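Standup notes, protein team

Yesterday: finished cleaning the Rufibacter sediminis set.
Today: Histidine phosphatase family protein structure.
Blockers: none.

Input for Histidine phosphatase family protein:
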Amino acid sequence: MNPATPHIYLIRHARPLINRKGFFTKAQAEQYIQEYNVAEVEEIIERSEHLPLDRIRKVFCSTLPRAKATALMLFGPEVELIEDASFKEFENRIWGLPLGKFPLLWWQVTSRILWLLGLNQKDIESFKQAKVRAAQAAEHLAREAEADGMAVLVAHGFLNEFIKRSLKQRGWKVVLDGGRGFVGVTQLSKG
């Protein structure tokens, strides 16, 4: 990695310690979402070899506990941790009639698709608003990386994906795509 080239690292949080097996009523799926937002995360056994750990002094993260806990596990308490609500995950509201039990994935995917289509956004941030927030977050990280040579974010799968898309539109190149897996690292560079 050329230290003169600005880099951005987008990292998804570690796997939350919460049971998602079985069938859920609508109320149970709603409860799961609430518990997921405050859940502890699995211990990280190995740090990614793609992170320049010796050079990282500042890390941005979501205000949700799973992102903060992941950042602390990856970088330790000596790093400057900047929590910012603009890095929170896109909201999800469980949609559906309170009839029957379904796998959690059914509730989540159905709700997310309807949200993406603009049909499930009552009392939460719309998809359009979330995309604007992701673009603003991308701009913030780009300014940080261009000023300091690097920006590191520990956040969430959907948000990171839309930040990556926005950065690519601004001319950033994906050097490494860690996907949306837990503790996945996506690295982008400018120029």
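Follow-up from PR in the comments: The chain has five helices and eight strands.
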